Amino acid sequence: MTYRSIVLVKQVPDTRHVTGEVMTADGTMNRSALPAIFNPEDLHALEMALQVKEQYGGTVTVLTMGPLQATETLRQALYRGADQVILVSDRKFAGADTQATSYTLKCAIDRLGAFDLVFCGRQAIDGDTAQVGPQVAEKLGVPQITYAESILSLADGEIVVQRAFERGTEIVQCTLPCLLTVTASANQPRPPSVRQRIACKEAAAPGEYPALLQKYPAYASAEALDADLARRGLKIPVWGAADLTVDESLLGLGGSPTQVHKINFVVLETTESKEIPPTPQGIHGLIEELVREYVIG
Ligand SMILES: Cc1cc2nc3c(=O)[nH]c(=O)nc-3n(C[C@H](O)[C@H](O)[C@H](O)COP(=O)(O)OP(=O)(O)OC[C@H]3O[C@@H](n4cnc5c(N)ncnc54)[C@H](O)[C@@H]3O)c2cc1C
To answer: Is residue 161 one of the residues assigned to a domain?
Structure first.
């Protein structure tokens, strides 16, 4: 049995560089003001999907919802071995909260047709809600396994997964199709393959053609470039609202019940300090104190 996997990946601003200046008046983020990276846990989700494909066969399709620049994340997925990538992008999706984001992603998955597994990262490092994966599962009407650390078995329409927590693990079983949110402890994501990078470096969405035409003047026109990329499987499809079966009132800012009013940076300041002697008694005393203060249990 082979498996059709879909991986949801997000291009995120490098949150080490978020300051008050990159937040706009309506509480949304000016992404173009920040360096963009592949959301770290999504690399683990992609790795898990690629391992399923290697072990059992099948396909890995990667979706991202975002602006045109998010194609870089899709190219990174191609360099690692994804079979197909799709950019879900439209001005109508702008300002989406997690509800509107998960609704849009669900509609894009509907367009892909039948699937066996959807993989998400556990959490994005910018929004940090960890809501999108569970919401997509709910909207698709499939079971979800969050905090997935490893797939223990996959057979006969069922999956057995080890979930990871701070203080232990749990083994759960569910039927396919299902959605997994994958933790950073799951695996070691592979680096981009040099061979794939050479093969896919020209992969582009139509919005990127003007820049590509400058880089490769041998193409006589955008039409010639489009035809060549399509022939070589390097044209990145862009799906907007008109390409999906959607209720437009559920998209973007209008479809978002939450509003970001303000972001505060919390700096924890030391008010007192205590020196612990590096002896068994000192460490024992510290643990007792932390238990007494309910810091650890
Ligand atoms: C009122 C409001 C307005 C907002 N406006 C904007 C805005 O204008 N521009 C903007 O960029 N953000 C905006 N956001 C943030 C946006 O809602 C989140 O970036 C998005 O919903 C994902 O949530 P998260 O980052 O918490 O992801 P999480 O729920 O933490 O992500 C979990 C996993 O879901 C998947 N995932 C998440 N997002 C995507 C995606 N876009 N594509 C594919 N897979 C994904 C990934 O696998 C990820 O690891 C807004 C949020 C609110 C509340």
So the answer is: yes
